[in-house]
Amino acid sequence: MSSPSPAVLLSLRINGEPVQVAVQPHHTLLEVLRYQLDLIGTKQGCDKGDCGACTVQIDGEPQLSCLTLALHAEGRELTTVEGLAASRGGVHPLQDAFDRWDAAQCGFCTPGILMSAEALLRKHGEVTPAQVREALAGNLCRCTGYTKIIDAVVDASRRVVAEGDAKSAAEAAPRRRRAAE
Amino acid sequence: MPDDPHSEAEPLAREAWQLGRTHRKVDAMERMRGITRYTDDLKLPGMLHGKIKRSPHPHARIVSIDTSRAEAMAGVHAVVTGQDFPIPYGIIPWTPDENALAVDKALHVGDGIAAVAAVDEDTAIEALDAIDVVYEILPAFFDPEEALAADVTINPYARKGNLSKKVELEFGDVEGGLQDAHLVIEGEYFFEGTTHAAIEPHCAVAHVERGGSAGEDGLLTVWSATQVSHYLHRELAKVLELPAHRIRVIQPPLGGAFGGKSEPFDLEFCVAKLAMKTGRPVKILYTREEVFYSHRGRHPMRMKYRTGFREDGTITAVDARTVLDGGAYSSFGLVTTYYSGQLLCSPYAFPAYRFHSRRAYTNKPACGPKRGHGSVQPRFAIEVQLDKAAVALGLDPIELRRRNDMGAGAQTVNEFRIGSNGFLECLRRVEESSGWVEKRRTLPYGRGLGVAGSTYISGTNYPIYPNAMPQAAVQICLDRSGRARVFSGANDIGQGSNTMLAVIVGEELGLPLEDVRVLSADTDLCPVDLGAYSSRITLMVGNACLQAAQALRRKVRGAVAKRWEIPARRVTLMQRKAIDIEDPDRHVDIAQAFQWAEEDHGLLGEVGSYNTPKDRHGDYRGGTIGASPAYSFTAHVAEVEVDDETGVVDVKTIWVAHDCGRALSRRIVEGQMEGSAYMGFAEAIMEQHIVDPGHRGVHSAPSLLDYRIPTFVDTPELRALIVEAPDEQGPYGAKEAGEGPLHPSIPAIANAIYDAVGVRMDELPFTPPRVLAALERRRAMEAAGELAPHKAADGRIG
């Protein structure tokens, strides 16, 4: 049986929860997520960094989990598609927009695209189609011709910005009242 | 109309409640939340991991295989070889010419030789290295003409040397038509093969449950990323020598297919046999490299065309000679060879047609069906021929196409009956949306517009194995909570067919889509369906579903009408209610209506079936192949910019107008149109699936990076323009949308390149070196005074 090296204990946070798992040092983050931790939302399309289906966020940055050794994630904060909506009651505005625009056909590339798109929106707020094309160029989709994905990301970005404005307006409102008093 | 309490006639213009709207798909949200279990997401207790050892040689006799070292390894549970699979199979019953693993010979690099099941993937990979194979190298052939001329037979089951299939058909007086023509365009075209490259690699899991009702022989369940669960079921039964009732095939949600998962592959037989041998579940997941070597993609075709035209641009005759490079196995090749000629006789009317197509075996991964099976390649040739004629005759290429349009209700020269036909409207829409008239006049040198048209089938008139039973069947059950369950054997491969069924059921029974549960592609639970190929599901499965849903609708309306003491025609079902049309304030919850119907009729379940009309094709040999109940139509305009220093073609925009009969769900239809146009664009500009003879048949680019599929940045703007010419054969008039809209992308781009810089691209793909070489040839002719500079006459040189 193949067990070339002793397992090593890996500690990290995944989707906000602390996780400890014993991993083979040569295993990728993708393998550990999918086959040890059963976080199957992260997909394997090529296993060599070409397709982007395995994109997760490490400390908020989109990364290819198939090119990342699991041990590289030691002590890091990891977000997978399962954690995308964690703070938003089950559905992230990107997921809702993808659903309304039929931006997922087979849906296999979608988790990776969502992870790249979320990072884009967090950095830039409302985005243009050109920004979406540039930011998602590392994620391949074979079904859609990308059109509806671009529509959905732009749409979601407007809603995220509007939500943010509403939230800061709500936070600002008491201060304005106090100022008025 | 008298107030007949039993009258079931519907008001004429019933308000559509689901039809033609945009919908959230029934299964999209769980995919986006990472919940959906695709095949590789399945994990069963005790599951072993399989791997397949593959031939490094393009053509070699297997002198011996010694598996003893592998079998002795710790963690290895079983090894199988070709000797475990002596029965040949093939997706087409007339050409069973492959074995699950090579029996005596390897026929291409990547051919499966042996398979192992081990405790984990790493162990399985090590075990492959411990299988000792002695090969005797045989001469290999990579060129179809050379293979046809060779005296070495590649495929051991072949009956005519390396000729896999030959079709010659002639209709009308071709030579007369060409002689009488004002203009004959002769051209030779080459379409390099391409592959599907679905993002989900092929994967299969098998498990045998022993004991229980299946007895000690057990029930074999195979989960596979397939688009044809029924055909896979049949071939598994044949090769494994098991009765079909002891096999269950389940297609889990699928990560793209495009024709690349439409026949059995070695992994499905291997997981099944390994599970039977070990008594444990076994999974095999292809690497991306294995996906490329398994292929079954678009055939390379060399096509010689002669097309005759009158002075007004109408076609007098078409003569085509085509050589198809089939690779090592037949796959769907018998059909592909027919399709290379049979699917080209519309949308243009012509009185005489001959095609002569030969498919050769070569020592390459086998070719098969890719989106637009068999007709994408010759459609490129035909549409470029038309463009050349338009230039020679001084006609607008859109106008030339209009003049050749065959219209609705026509019969093609090869005797197919066309129903509805929105081709002229497709032309009008792309002409208008692209600004064709103005731009064709004003775009400078280096920029150009091109047009092309096409037609495609909405399913094939006959199934792959001859039988007179329905081609599609659906079962629907209603329950007391006001919900519906739909059982369909059809494979949703991401195209949205489960949602299409939910739209029909929702429309007929007044339900929102979230109240319709579609259970599909499980051979134990669902009625037989032939699968996701030939763009058949919307028309065929949609019709079967509509039949069942309408039967249930009648029962529900009748039960409500009885209780309200009004004629049934006054009752409609929508918005989760049964409503009195003449007194809309009177309504009940749909759950109550279903309960009343169940009181009257017992459990509410109906089945629907669909079979094709048999009067829509000729009765000559081959006359049924390519015939369809209904045909879709498409027109594209592409706008390109060509850099004449680098040869880089930048496709700016593709306008896609497609006559889908009736769009049941608009965004899904648009998505099919955009995805098709993208895939055609990719084949035009980038993709080529080639094995390298200089390296003994090794694939030149077996990765997504090297093969190059377009990214977000590469892909042009895609403008989907839905055209609806309802066809009486389709459910609510619907025809296909999944494959037809791919065809014109490639010739529209080729024709746009000509408009931009005056060079003809007759070989695919239009890579910078090819475009640059063509530009240099043109410049030499201009320098020699043989040609005027392109666009010089109107002073638009860039």
Could you please describe the fold and organization of this structure?
The complex is a heterodimer of chains A (181) and B (798). Chain A is α+β, with helices and mostly antiparallel strands and 181 residues long. Chain A is built from five helices and five strands, in the order ββαβββαααα. Chain A has a five-stranded mixed beta sheet, sandwiched between helices. In chain A, α2 packs across α5. The relative contact order of chain A is 0.13. The mean pLDDT of chain A is 92. In chain B, the strands form seven sheets. A seven-stranded mixed beta sheet of chain B has the order 3-5-1-12-9-10-11, sandwiched between helices. In chain B, α10 packs parallel to α19, α14 runs parallel beside α15 and α17 packs across α19. The N terminus of chain B is likely disordered. Chains A and B meet through α2, α3, α4 and α5 of A and α1, α3, α17 and β28 of B.
Structural class of chain B: alpha+beta
In percent, how helical is the residue content of chain A?
25-40%
Radius of gyration from the alpha-carbon trace of chain B, in angstroms: 28 Å
Largest sheet of chain B: 7 strands, mixed
Summarize the structure.
The complex is a heterodimer of chains A (181) and B (798). Chain A has helices spanning 29-36, 93-100, 110-124, 129-135, 147-180; strands spanning 8-14, 17-23, 55-58, 61-64, 77-79. Chain A is of the alpha+beta class.
Provide the descriptors you would attach to this structure in a database record:
heterodimer; A: 181 residues; alpha+beta; 5-stranded mixed sheet; 5 helices; 40% helix; B: 798 residues; 7-stranded mixed sheet; 20 helices; disordered N terminus
